[in-house]
Automatic annotation (TrEMBL):
<keyword id="KW-0285">Flavoprotein</keyword>
<comment type="similarity">
    <text>Belongs to the oxygen-dependent FAD-linked oxidoreductase family.</text>
</comment>
<feature type="domain" description="FAD-binding PCMH-type">
    <location>
        <begin position="349"/>
        <end position="520"/>
    </location>
</feature>
<protein>
    <recommendedName>
        <fullName>FAD-binding PCMH-type domain-containing protein</fullName>
    </recommendedName>
</protein>
<dbReference type="InterPro" id="IPR016166">
    <property type="entry name" value="FAD-bd_PCMH"/>
</dbReference>
<dbReference type="InterPro" id="IPR036318">
    <property type="entry name" value="FAD-bd_PCMH-like_sf"/>
</dbReference>
<dbReference type="Pfam" id="PF00296">
    <property type="entry name" value="Bac_luciferase"/>
</dbReference>
<keyword id="KW-0274">FAD</keyword>
<dbReference type="InterPro" id="IPR006094">
    <property type="entry name" value="Oxid_FAD_bind_N"/>
</dbReference>
<dbReference type="GO" id="GO:0016705">
    <property type="term" value="F:oxidoreductase activity, acting on paired donors, with incorporation or reduction of molecular oxygen"/>
</dbReference>
<keyword id="KW-0560">Oxidoreductase</keyword>
<dbReference type="Pfam" id="PF01565">
    <property type="entry name" value="FAD_binding_4"/>
</dbReference>
<dbReference type="InterPro" id="IPR016169">
    <property type="entry name" value="FAD-bd_PCMH_sub2"/>
</dbReference>
<dbReference type="InterPro" id="IPR050416">
    <property type="entry name" value="FAD-linked_Oxidoreductase"/>
</dbReference>
<dbReference type="InterPro" id="IPR011251">
    <property type="entry name" value="Luciferase-like_dom"/>
</dbReference>
<dbReference type="GO" id="GO:0071949">
    <property type="term" value="F:FAD binding"/>
</dbReference>
<dbReference type="InterPro" id="IPR036661">
    <property type="entry name" value="Luciferase-like_sf"/>
</dbReference>
Length: 751
């Protein structure tokens, strides 16, 4: 048989002995420490001398950090598949995607029957396994609408609710030897897991051929199916005395033909000896990988990870998936992968990227950028994916997702200086800083990502008291267009730091920022829902009051139009930026008189309670239409235009944000965000079908809008409003230095 080119992996097959439970856990940890990839356990529920395998898997998952865990193989007749699906998904979620599901049709039927399961004929056992796989996969697929009805005579569900979905595509490996079982592997399994002893090497070629034929008949590429092999026990010694009986180099010589001639790529050693396990991981594994790599180089064998059929079918022609850098390959997500639904879209924008790369650090971000430059597809960068501008996903391109870069580190207690990864969520930042009595003004939603907000501006609920988020950034780590990593500070790459604060996506990928927090303890947080049947009057009165209020008051006012029997309503979110409740009441209470109050809530809470991070799944369904603008004041004309959107139900949301006060203390040329005179930020959103209508109304504000917040309006015709002439000229010069080929900022080109 030819070499399938799969990645070489090695693991252990441990005995789940109940006599010394701690020892089997220690052997699993030793397997991980030795660098092995996989830890598996026998599953014989009827064996009184053994621990329950699933309980053991769960315990070992908590005691390890890296290895994949599996039953080898789970006794399906004694494990109800619907419950097994939930157990596997749960453990995969809890372990961070480290579960594989090894399944067997059943053996030792006297013992199985003694445990209460019905005896099945060999043919029925195969049918039952086939049905079970359909049930398990169907219940994992919670992206499908509705409930699941699947299975057949032996394992059936009727209207079962799907979920939870596992953290990754949990592979299903099947132990198989007979023709019908081998055909099942080819049709539906992700891997074949036989054991030497039950399988003779002389029979491997015929078994692989049968699997491949069944795969092709089912429309699958045989290369999708991983070939694993339990190789039994072995002994290290100075001289050779048989298969895996000798020095490490002989072990390599014994295993190498099984890769090159028989197609196996994962070897699982049945040993409960810690020294043998350690030598297998530390000496045999690297030598075998190198020997295989050398042989593959000489033969020109194509290598890569095992891809499911759905992924292979959905690949974008022209994108070189095999060229993805090695350090990114294990965390890359393609269409068809289970994780794809969680990374394809943003909170607002639906996306269908061809590839999502999830780097673990700035150097890997650099590798992602260098790779993306070689591919003729769009490039997007995502920190949290909450923004309106649509920069964080695309269709048919590459997305570099920064969620792994989420560290929060205090650099200087006296300065309240904090280094925050671009992939962190602001709600998590607020929670981390709250015990110190610190806060950073950061929008109005805790799920917003650090990178997107801090490079665009950061209009937040502490804004009038403490300014924009970016106003307190004093340093940034940036990956440039050539993939190099630099740190921009006032003393080094000062021009880059200037650009990062307001136009960061034009000059690179910001991977972390150094930012000075403000001393903020508890704040007064008030939410008021009011009748909006006279939206114009409410807007003008609210704006007049907020603009005249002390700076400690920041308020956002949002309108929802009338729908069916529901009247139009407005809800305001207001924060008084300290714990002086008397002053807060004096400043906020007048808002209650502006329109009839339908609901109100006031709390004295830490700022972290204002912006909690829900870490919700982004699953946008429709492309939005939206417009934004900055105005000096809410004039009668501004109120009339916005009120018309509310009255006629033309916008799903119409919002006014107070952005004066401390925001306007900063000189206009201090950052690439140059809008330092306006008191309010406006936003209207609707469905894409109303884009022309929204634009028509927005045109009536041309004399009032003196600037645009890029996150709220990235249309190309807004360039001059996003960046005033002097800012734009300076930004073009900086971008030409750091990104001469225009890799970044394509959503709003500077040209």
């Amino acid at each position: 048989m030819p070499d399938y080119g799969h990645e070489i992996q090695l693991g252990t097959f441990l005995t789940p002995s109940a006599a010394d439970p701690r020892r089997v856990v220690a052997l699993a940890q030793a397997s991980e420490d030795a660098g092995l990839d996989l830890v598996t356990f026998q599953d014989h529920p009827y064996q009184p001398r053994f621990l329950d395998t699933w309980t053991l898997l769960t315990w070992v998952a908590a005691a390890t950090a890296r290895v994949t865990l599996a039953g080898n193989v789970l006794n399906l007749p004694l494990r109800q598949p619907a419950v097994l699906a939930k157990a596997a998904a749960s453990l995969d979620l809890l372990s961070g995607g480290r579960v594989a599901l090894g399944l067997g049709a059943g053996a030792f039927w006297d013992a199985i029957e003694a445990m209460g399961a019905p005896r099945l004929s060999p043919g029925d056992a195969v049918t039952a396994l086939d049905e079970a796989i359909a049930v398990i996969r169907g219940l994992w697929d919670d992206d499908e609408r509705g409930v699941l009805s699947a299975g057949g005579r032996f394992h059936a569900v009727h209207g079962a609710k799907r979920g939870p979905a596992p953290a990754h595509d949990v592979p299903i490996w099947v132990g198989a030897y007979k023709p019908r079982m081998l055909e099942l592997v080819g049709r539906t399994a992700d891997g074949w897991l036989p054991s030497l002893g039950y399988l003779q090497i002389a029979d491997a070629a015929a078994a692989n051929a049968r699997i491949d034929e069944a795969a092709l008949a089912a429309g699958r590429d045989p290369g999708e199916i991983l070939r694993l092999l339990n190789v039994g026990s072995g002994t290290f010694s100075a001289s050779s005395s048989g298969f895996l009986q000798g020095p490490p180099e002989q072990w390599v010589d014994d295993l190498l033909p099984l890769v090159l001639d028989e197609g196996f790529s994962t070897f699982v050693l049945g040993s409960d000896d810690e020294t043998t396990i350690t030598r297998f991981g530390e000496e045999v594994a690297p030598a075998l990988r190198e020997a295989v790599a050398q042989a593959r180089r000489e033969s020109g064998t194509t290598t890569g990870t095992v891809r499911p059929a759905a992924s292979l079918a959905a690949r974008t022609p022209g994108l070189d998936y095999d060229a993805v850098p090695d350090e990114l390959r294990g965390r890359a997500v393609e269409p068809g992968d289970r994780a794809y639904r969680d990374v394809r879209s943003t909170y607002v924008w639906p996306g269908s990227p061809a590839l999502v790369l999830r780097p673990a650090d700035a150097e890997q971000v650099g590798a992602a950028v260098r790779y993306a430059r070689t591919q003729d597809v769009p490039l997007a960068v995502r920190s949290g994916g909450h923004g309106l501008a649509g920069r964080a996903t695309n269709d048919g391109g590459i997305v570099v997702a920064l969620e792994a870069l989420s560290g929060i580190e205090v650099l200087d207690e006296s300065r309240r200086l904090v280094r925050i990864g671009a992939g962190a969520r602001w709600g998590d930042v607020a929670a981390a800083l709250s015990p110190r009595g610190w806060a950073i003004s950061s929008g109005d939603m805790g799920d917003v990502g650090v990178g997107g907000l801090v490079t665009a501006g950061g209009q937040g609920l502490l804004g009038r008291a403490h300014g924009l988020t970016l106003d307190h950034v004093v340093g940034a780590e940036v990956v440039l267009a050539d993939g190099s990593v630099v740190r921009a500070t006032p003393d080094k790459h000062a021009d880059l730091l200037w650009a990062v604060r307001g136009a960061g996506s034009h000059v690179g990928v910001v991977t972390s920022v150094d930012i000075e927090a403000a001393p903020v303890g508890d704040v007064v947080f008030v939410v008021v829902v009011q009748d909006a049947s006279e939206p114009e009057r409410l807007m003008t009165r609210w704006a007049r009051h907020v603009e005249a209020a002390p700076r400690d008051l920041t308020s956002f006012l949002t309108f929802a139009p009338a729908r069916a029997t529901q009247p139009a309503v407005a809800y305001s979110m207001s924060v008084w930026a300290d714990d002086d409740t008397e002053a807060a009441v004096a400043a906020i209470e007048p808002i209650l008189t502006l329109a009839p109050v339908l609901q109100q809530q006031a709390q004295l809470v830490p700022y972290a309670a204002v912006v909690p991070a829900a870490h919700a799944r982004h699953s946008a369904q429709a492309t939005p239409a939206f417009r934004g603008g900055l105005v000096e004041h809410v004039t009668d004309r501004v109120a009339q235009v916005l009120g018309g959107l509310v009255r006629h139900g033309l916008a799903d949301m119409t919002q006014l944000r107070a952005v004066g006060g401390a925001v306007n203390d900063v000189p206009a040329d201090a950052t690439a965000y140059a809008h330092r005179t306006q008191a309010f930020s406006l936003l209207a959103t609707s469905s894409s079908g109303r884009s022309a209508t929204i634009d028509g109304h927005w045109g009536a504000l041309r004399d009032d809008i003196t600037g645009v917040y890029r996150s709220f309006d990235a249309a190309p015709d807004r360039l001059a409003l996003v960046y005033p002439p002097a800012t734009l000229a300076r930004l073009r010069t900086i971008a030409a230095t750091y990104d001469p080929d225009g890799v970044f900022g394509r959503d709003l080109p500077l040209a």
